From TrEMBL:
Domain of life: Bacteria
Name the record gives this protein: ABC transporter ATP-binding protein
All residue ranges annotated as the ABC transporter domain in the record: 5-227
Gene3D superfamilies: P-loop containing nucleotide triphosphate hydrolases (3.40.50.300)
Keyword Transferase on entry: no
Length: 232
Protein backbone atom coordinates (compact mmCIF):
# COMPACT_ATOMS: atom_id res chain seq x y z
CA UNK A 1 0.00 0.00 0.00
CA UNK A 2 1.49 3.29 -1.07
CA UNK A 3 -0.93 5.50 0.82
CA UNK A 4 -0.03 6.39 4.36
CA UNK A 5 -3.27 8.16 5.24
CA UNK A 6 -6.77 7.29 3.99
CA UNK A 7 -9.46 9.82 4.84
CA UNK A 8 -12.97 8.82 3.82
CA UNK A 9 -16.11 10.95 4.02
CA UNK A 10 -14.78 12.84 7.02
CA UNK A 11 -17.12 15.36 8.62
CA UNK A 12 -16.69 17.42 11.77
CA UNK A 13 -19.44 19.66 13.05
CA UNK A 14 -19.18 22.10 15.94
CA UNK A 15 -22.87 22.40 16.75
CA UNK A 16 -24.38 23.45 13.45
CA UNK A 17 -21.07 24.75 12.08
CA UNK A 18 -19.58 22.25 9.61
CA UNK A 19 -15.78 22.61 9.84
CA UNK A 20 -14.87 19.55 7.75
CA UNK A 21 -17.45 18.51 5.20
CA UNK A 22 -17.44 14.99 3.70
CA UNK A 23 -13.71 15.10 2.97
CA UNK A 24 -12.19 12.16 1.12
CA UNK A 25 -8.47 12.21 0.36
CA UNK A 26 -5.48 9.85 0.48
CA UNK A 27 -1.95 10.93 1.36
CA UNK A 28 0.91 8.92 -0.13
CA UNK A 29 4.11 7.92 1.62
CA UNK A 30 7.28 9.91 1.18
CA UNK A 31 5.84 13.30 0.22
CA UNK A 32 5.92 16.78 1.67
CA UNK A 33 2.37 18.06 1.32
CA UNK A 34 1.09 21.57 1.89
CA UNK A 35 -2.33 21.82 3.54
CA UNK A 36 -3.51 25.20 2.33
CA UNK A 37 -6.73 27.15 2.59
CA UNK A 38 -8.18 30.45 3.72
CA UNK A 39 -8.95 31.17 7.39
CA UNK A 40 -11.64 28.89 8.73
CA UNK A 41 -11.36 26.33 5.93
CA UNK A 42 -10.94 23.42 8.37
CA UNK A 43 -7.19 22.79 8.32
CA UNK A 44 -6.62 22.81 12.07
CA UNK A 45 -9.78 20.79 12.67
CA UNK A 46 -8.54 18.14 10.22
CA UNK A 47 -5.10 18.13 11.86
CA UNK A 48 -6.62 17.70 15.32
CA UNK A 49 -8.69 14.77 14.11
CA UNK A 50 -5.57 13.17 12.58
CA UNK A 51 -3.92 13.50 16.00
CA UNK A 52 -6.86 12.10 17.95
CA UNK A 53 -7.53 15.42 19.69
CA UNK A 54 -11.00 15.70 18.16
CA UNK A 55 -13.47 12.96 17.26
CA UNK A 56 -15.06 13.14 13.83
CA UNK A 57 -18.83 13.49 13.55
CA UNK A 58 -18.77 11.10 10.60
CA UNK A 59 -16.28 9.25 8.40
CA UNK A 60 -13.04 7.36 8.91
CA UNK A 61 -9.29 7.92 8.95
CA UNK A 62 -6.66 5.21 8.66
CA UNK A 63 -2.99 5.99 9.25
CA UNK A 64 -0.74 3.17 8.07
CA UNK A 65 -3.79 0.92 8.23
CA UNK A 66 -4.75 1.84 11.82
CA UNK A 67 -7.62 3.85 13.20
CA UNK A 68 -6.50 6.99 15.03
CA UNK A 69 -5.56 5.91 18.57
CA UNK A 70 -2.57 4.63 20.56
CA UNK A 71 -1.17 2.74 17.53
CA UNK A 72 -1.10 5.88 15.38
CA UNK A 73 0.05 8.28 18.12
CA UNK A 74 3.43 6.56 18.23
CA UNK A 75 3.82 7.07 14.46
CA UNK A 76 2.67 10.67 14.21
CA UNK A 77 4.88 13.60 15.22
CA UNK A 78 2.76 16.70 15.68
CA UNK A 79 3.72 20.34 15.91
CA UNK A 80 0.68 22.22 17.22
CA UNK A 81 0.04 25.84 16.35
CA UNK A 82 0.72 26.88 19.94
CA UNK A 83 3.27 26.03 22.58
CA UNK A 84 2.64 22.95 24.68
CA UNK A 85 6.00 22.72 26.46
CA UNK A 86 6.49 23.35 30.15
CA UNK A 87 7.99 26.78 30.50
CA UNK A 88 9.96 26.27 33.71
CA UNK A 89 11.96 23.35 32.32
CA UNK A 90 15.30 23.74 30.59
CA UNK A 91 15.63 22.56 27.00
CA UNK A 92 17.88 19.76 28.26
CA UNK A 93 15.17 18.57 30.66
CA UNK A 94 12.69 18.58 27.81
CA UNK A 95 15.13 16.52 25.71
CA UNK A 96 15.30 14.01 28.63
CA UNK A 97 11.51 13.84 28.65
CA UNK A 98 11.28 13.28 24.89
CA UNK A 99 13.96 10.60 25.08
CA UNK A 100 11.97 8.75 27.75
CA UNK A 101 8.62 9.25 26.13
CA UNK A 102 9.30 8.58 22.43
CA UNK A 103 11.23 5.47 21.42
CA UNK A 104 11.85 7.05 18.01
CA UNK A 105 13.41 10.26 19.37
CA UNK A 106 17.00 11.00 18.28
CA UNK A 107 18.65 13.13 20.95
CA UNK A 108 21.75 13.43 18.80
CA UNK A 109 19.74 14.95 15.95
CA UNK A 110 18.00 17.37 18.31
CA UNK A 111 21.27 18.51 19.88
CA UNK A 112 22.85 19.02 16.48
CA UNK A 113 19.95 21.19 15.30
CA UNK A 114 19.97 23.23 18.52
CA UNK A 115 23.68 23.85 17.99
CA UNK A 116 23.19 24.89 14.35
CA UNK A 117 20.61 27.44 15.43
CA UNK A 118 22.78 28.66 18.31
CA UNK A 119 20.27 27.64 21.00
CA UNK A 120 21.74 26.94 24.45
CA UNK A 121 20.14 23.74 25.87
CA UNK A 122 20.82 24.76 29.48
CA UNK A 123 18.35 27.66 29.46
CA UNK A 124 14.74 27.51 30.60
CA UNK A 125 12.04 27.64 27.96
CA UNK A 126 10.47 30.64 29.68
CA UNK A 127 13.52 32.79 28.92
CA UNK A 128 13.36 32.24 25.16
CA UNK A 129 11.77 34.58 22.62
CA UNK A 130 8.57 33.42 20.93
CA UNK A 131 10.39 32.53 17.71
CA UNK A 132 13.09 30.57 19.53
CA UNK A 133 10.43 28.62 21.45
CA UNK A 134 8.92 27.73 18.09
CA UNK A 135 12.30 26.60 16.78
CA UNK A 136 12.77 24.34 19.83
CA UNK A 137 9.35 22.80 19.34
CA UNK A 138 10.00 22.12 15.68
CA UNK A 139 13.41 20.59 16.47
CA UNK A 140 11.77 18.23 18.99
CA UNK A 141 9.17 17.14 16.46
CA UNK A 142 11.61 16.70 13.58
CA UNK A 143 13.99 14.68 15.80
CA UNK A 144 11.47 11.89 15.99
CA UNK A 145 11.63 9.11 13.42
CA UNK A 146 7.92 9.17 12.68
CA UNK A 147 5.86 7.95 9.71
CA UNK A 148 3.79 11.12 9.57
CA UNK A 149 4.86 14.61 10.60
CA UNK A 150 2.06 17.12 10.97
CA UNK A 151 3.26 20.70 11.25
CA UNK A 152 0.68 23.40 11.95
CA UNK A 153 2.21 26.78 10.99
CA UNK A 154 5.83 25.68 11.62
CA UNK A 155 7.59 28.91 10.68
CA UNK A 156 5.07 31.63 11.46
CA UNK A 157 7.07 33.20 14.29
CA UNK A 158 10.53 32.40 12.95
CA UNK A 159 12.77 35.04 11.36
CA UNK A 160 13.40 34.73 7.60
CA UNK A 161 17.04 33.64 7.93
CA UNK A 162 16.12 30.77 10.26
CA UNK A 163 13.14 29.82 8.07
CA UNK A 164 15.46 28.56 5.36
CA UNK A 165 17.43 26.47 7.86
CA UNK A 166 14.21 25.04 9.27
CA UNK A 167 12.84 24.20 5.83
CA UNK A 168 16.11 22.53 4.91
CA UNK A 169 15.91 20.63 8.20
CA UNK A 170 12.47 19.40 7.29
CA UNK A 171 13.70 18.10 3.93
CA UNK A 172 16.98 16.63 5.13
CA UNK A 173 16.12 15.10 8.45
CA UNK A 174 13.16 12.98 7.88
CA UNK A 175 12.90 9.41 6.76
CA UNK A 176 12.20 9.35 2.97
CA UNK A 177 9.32 6.88 3.55
CA UNK A 178 7.63 9.38 5.85
CA UNK A 179 5.14 12.03 4.88
CA UNK A 180 5.13 15.60 6.10
CA UNK A 181 1.87 17.55 6.14
CA UNK A 182 2.44 21.28 6.57
CA UNK A 183 -0.38 23.72 7.18
CA UNK A 184 0.69 27.28 6.53
CA UNK A 185 -0.31 30.69 5.22
CA UNK A 186 3.35 31.44 4.35
CA UNK A 187 3.03 29.69 1.02
CA UNK A 188 5.77 31.60 -0.78
CA UNK A 189 8.34 30.58 1.85
CA UNK A 190 7.27 26.98 2.10
CA UNK A 191 6.46 26.04 -1.49
CA UNK A 192 10.12 25.41 -2.35
CA UNK A 193 10.01 22.25 -0.20
CA UNK A 194 6.54 21.00 -1.11
CA UNK A 195 5.92 18.08 -3.47
CA UNK A 196 2.14 18.33 -3.42
CA UNK A 197 -0.59 20.66 -2.22
CA UNK A 198 -4.09 20.29 -0.88
CA UNK A 199 -6.36 23.32 -1.24
CA UNK A 200 -9.32 23.35 1.19
CA UNK A 201 -12.33 25.65 1.48
CA UNK A 202 -15.46 25.31 3.64
CA UNK A 203 -14.10 22.00 4.95
CA UNK A 204 -14.00 20.51 1.48
CA UNK A 205 -11.26 19.52 -0.92
CA UNK A 206 -10.85 22.08 -3.69
CA UNK A 207 -7.71 20.65 -5.27
CA UNK A 208 -5.03 18.04 -4.64
CA UNK A 209 -2.17 18.16 -7.09
CA UNK A 210 1.59 18.28 -7.39
CA UNK A 211 3.49 21.54 -7.18
CA UNK A 212 5.07 20.72 -10.57
CA UNK A 213 1.60 20.46 -12.08
CA UNK A 214 0.65 23.93 -10.89
CA UNK A 215 3.89 25.36 -12.23
CA UNK A 216 3.65 23.58 -15.58
CA UNK A 217 -0.10 23.71 -16.26
CA UNK A 218 -0.93 27.06 -14.71
CA UNK A 219 2.47 28.67 -15.29
CA UNK A 220 2.28 30.03 -11.75
CA UNK A 221 3.83 29.60 -8.34
CA UNK A 222 1.65 27.90 -5.73
CA UNK A 223 1.39 31.23 -3.92
CA UNK A 224 0.14 33.03 -7.05
CA UNK A 225 -2.28 30.24 -7.88
CA UNK A 226 -3.63 30.17 -4.32
CA UNK A 227 -4.29 33.93 -4.51
CA UNK A 228 -6.13 33.42 -7.79
CA UNK A 229 -8.29 30.51 -6.57
CA UNK A 230 -9.18 32.12 -3.24
CA UNK A 231 -9.37 35.78 -4.31
CA UNK A 232 -11.86 37.63 -2.08
N1 LIG B 1 -13.92 24.94 19.04
C1 LIG B 1 -14.69 25.39 18.06
N2 LIG B 1 -16.00 25.62 18.25
C2 LIG B 1 -16.80 26.06 17.25
N3 LIG B 1 -16.38 26.28 15.99
C3 LIG B 1 -15.08 26.06 15.74
C4 LIG B 1 -14.17 25.62 16.75
N4 LIG B 1 -12.94 25.48 16.19
C5 LIG B 1 -13.08 25.83 14.89
N5 LIG B 1 -14.35 26.18 14.62
C6 LIG B 1 -14.89 26.60 13.31
O1 LIG B 1 -14.59 25.58 12.38
C7 LIG B 1 -14.23 26.15 11.12
C8 LIG B 1 -12.85 25.65 10.72
O2 LIG B 1 -11.90 26.16 11.64
P1 LIG B 1 -10.36 25.72 11.62
O3 LIG B 1 -9.71 26.33 12.80
O4 LIG B 1 -10.30 24.25 11.45
O5 LIG B 1 -9.88 26.43 10.27
P2 LIG B 1 -8.41 26.73 9.73
O6 LIG B 1 -8.44 26.42 8.27
O7 LIG B 1 -7.39 26.03 10.54
O8 LIG B 1 -8.32 28.31 9.94
P3 LIG B 1 -7.05 29.29 10.14
O9 LIG B 1 -6.31 29.32 8.83
O10 LIG B 1 -7.71 30.60 10.43
O11 LIG B 1 -6.24 28.77 11.28
C9 LIG B 1 -14.33 27.66 11.28
O12 LIG B 1 -15.61 28.05 10.83
C10 LIG B 1 -14.22 27.85 12.79
O13 LIG B 1 -14.92 29.01 13.20
Amino acid sequence: MNNLVEIVNLTKKYGTNVAVNHLTVSLPKGKIIGLLGPNGSGKTTLIKILNGLLTPTEGTILIDGNNVGPATKSKVAYLPDRTYLTMNQTIREILDYFQDFYADFSRERAEEMLKSLGIDPTVKMRTLSKGTKEKVQLILVMSRNASLYILDEPIAGVDPAARDYILRTIINNYNPEATVLISTHLIEDVEQVLDEVIFMRYGQLVLYTSVDNIREEKGKSVDAYFREVFAC
